[in-house]
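chain below, 695 aa
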Amino acid sequence: MVFRPKTLDFDLSPYTGLTRDSWIEAGIYLLEGMFQNIKHFEDPVVMPRKETKITYPHLHLPEEIQEVERKAEMFEGLTRSFFIAAPLIHINPQLELCGYRIRDYYKNQVLKSCTKGDPAYVGTYEDLQAITNHQDPFRAFQQTVETCALVICLWISKEEIWDTFTQEEKDRVAKLLLSFAHANTVPQNWRLFNMLDMAFLHMEGYQIDKEIMADHAMAILNYYVGDGWYRDGHSFDYYSCWAFNVYAPLWNLWYGYDHEPYIAKKFEENSNKLMETYADFFDQDGFTNMWGRSNIYRNASTSAFDGNMFLKESRVNHGLARRIASGSLLQFLTREDFRYKGVPTLGFYGQFSPLVQGYSCAESPFWMGKAFLCLHLPADHPFWTAKENNGTWETLEENEVKETVLNGPALCFSNHKANGETILRTGKVVKDSGDNHGMWNYSKLSFNTKYPWEATPVFEEIGSGIKVGEIEAQQYVLKDTTSGELQKCNVTFWCGSKKEVLYRRQFFNYNLQTESQWIQGINLADFTVPYGIVRVDQLKLFRRPIALTLGAYGFPDNGTEIIKKEKENAKAIILKGSDFTGKKRQLAMTIYDGWSDLDYLQSKGTNPDSEQSLIVFASTTRKKQYGGYESYILISQVITKDNHEEFTEDELFPILNIEYGDKHKVGAYGITRIYLKDGKVREIDFEGMEANMSL
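prediction:
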């Protein structure tokens, strides 16, 4: 079940050993797993479905909607697996797997999907409108997404498939493409799907509406916020990387350079800007962070490097790009829980329903096939011939931390040499107050490449009387002890970095219809230490009494040693154990001023890495409605190691002294100075935040 490459070259690839041949083997590994579920040559790519309540086809919907969704599922399976198959077909047109010649299978399935009356026919935009009796001209269908995947793959395997179609067959495919290319789409990254459909058709001599093309292209350009990132809907996530920064460079190559040179130049500049910092988004092992929606796409995050290579003036570091792409590939393919009946699970590692979204189906994870588009590059391309290097990680000194702050997309990521992890802190987050899923994906205080986010812990009531829902990993949970209402931070404003301290503000159950001073809030201030993050946060409350909790990262529990320590006014809990793969893990949470207690709980089914998990959490209360002499400041630390070597006392308890600037020494105003035992001083100054908050 686990991918084991046969071809390794540690001279060319000293970090991973992977070569172009290794990637070909990985692609075959994925396709063989898929084809073992296809019993007949005429059968579409519809895979075994382990989850039926969240993903589509949605069995509770009317039959006509289910019909549309079944068509979308067949098309999604075809086109997304084609991401992997297309370059393999181009490399070896005679490739056979599970008794099928792969080129013949995909050529046949493409035609079937475009042939009216065929069981695999996916329908034009007009057909789908008719099926649903829904003549809303602004409606969009999933097929739009997949037509874009189709044209990319037809271009990569052009000689082997597209060029072998008769003119009538080409026209049949083009009819479907033309339908979705010019129809309504979703006003976010989806516009790029229409753009590439039209660009491909234009290359092949079909008439397109250039006015529609221009409108989409101008809109995409206006989503750009700087630093190589685009806003997708309201959110910032990997869609900026695996959509905007893959499709826009391809569009340049197919259409933009010749017909929209100004926009094409901007797309090129934006992609190259991303390349300046994007490598530091990954950790020392090349791991992808679990963050944002569509985490089932996994290492598709690395496809932005390949996207940059479509440009006339690509500035990617080839040896670093391949090292990260290969590292992230191994992150997933080498795990025993990665596949279900040969197919990538609906999860980040194994099957994990808390992250699954309703727009996905059993075949959706094949979007990760975008990472395999790099195989379109010939064997003598620098991406394959350059020696692997590890960029920033090769230059950092012991215990050094490199921090990157991008104000446009509100991203701060830090590379920690001490443990090889990359920690991401985000802002400009707006989610519905009832959307736990959205808050897990976007509103965590930090995201760690080695500790994927934990869903709401499930547990029996523990000794302190805390119940399910009152604890979240890397999130504050506020309980109004008068009403019993639980509130979580669904909005995060970005305030930028000052003197190596990152400032943000979160609101609990934020509502646009409510005056912000009537919403419970918290000012966030955090800074890096070699093994993690120290928090010096400030309560911004209008109503008390309240109870408050804060969880550390979820910790995989596969047999864990739990250690408690205290020093003066500080408490710490240390967890020593291992992840699902057996790799050693160690986490410690320390609390200082503002917190009352530190405890831990065990959960089940809420951690993407392991079935059992542990969450260390801090707790406190504020009892007076206007408690001017109660502490406003909450100081805590979470640090981690990739081994079981003891944390030193100075690492567990890094603060030498805390100096408050306000009269009552509670952190209500003025500068709070944190004197660290390593000699550094961090100044926390929340004044001026109101003038610098952005969403």
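The first helix runs from residue 20 to 35. The mean pLDDT is 96.
thats it, cya
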